[in-house]
Design goal:
8 helices, 197 residues, 72% helix, mainly alpha
Length: 197
């Protein structure tokens, strides 16, 4: 059965078929939500927001119109809006990394210094992505983490394909610019050290 057929059946009262729709999209939506929350270190609420997304979709299924968007696009849009609402709500209750009680775990093969540097880099990349405007951040997550194509991203963000490409270009450039001082500085210090020898 296609999504359209399932939706027609559900709208006609065969509500148990909604489980099939959920089964088809649950992993994708969960991964998308998880990656959107990762930059804010709120991954622990991903499952709750995934459930909330499917509940909202079920409640609004009667208003879904296939001519406007595919079910997948509509579901991603609901997921995105659910995450953005949660991020706005949590913004006031910001907990720093140290206060969160989360301790980075290093692999057994790495030295404490290597683990610290790796965790520092991960944090810098997360912060750089988190500093992006919302549409650039969403486009980057959908492309790099969820591996969606440009057309799917355009549908989810309600943009044209060329706008999505532009958003991605600006997002990548911004992340690169934010991280450049951290990438160039150690090499410069190393060069200065060689001159003093």
């Amino acid at each position: 059965m296609t999504d359209s057929q399932l939706i027609r059946e559900i709208k006609d009262g065969n509500v148990q078929l909604y489980e099939e729709l959920m089964r088809r999209y649950e992993r994708k939506i969960m991964a998308f939500i998880y990656h959107m929350l990762k930059t804010s270190k709120m991954e622990l609420v991903a499952e709750d927001l995934c459930s909330e997304t499917f509940f909202k979709a079920y409640r609004s299924l009667h208003s879904f119109r296939e001519v406007e968007a595919s079910f997948q696009t509509w579901l991603y849009t609901i997921a995105r809006n659910t995450v953005l609402s949660e991020l706005r709500r949590q913004k006031a209750v910001h907990v720093s990394f140290e206060e969160s009680g989360l301790v980075p775990v290093a692999s057994l093969e790495s030295t404490p210094e290597q683990a610290m540097l790796r965790n520092e880099r991960v944090t810098m990349v997360r912060n750089a992505i988190n500093n992006l405007p919302e549409k650039q951040r969403s486009a980057l997550i959908l492309r790099e983490y969820d591996q969606l194509d440009y057309q799917e991203i355009a549908n989810i963000l309600d943009q044209t394909v060329s706008s999505v490409k532009s958003l991605l270009f600006r997002a990548r450039a911004s992340v690169k610019t934010q991280l450049e001082p951290y990438l160039v500085e150690p090499m410069f210090r190393e060069y200065e050290g060689m001159n003093q020898r």
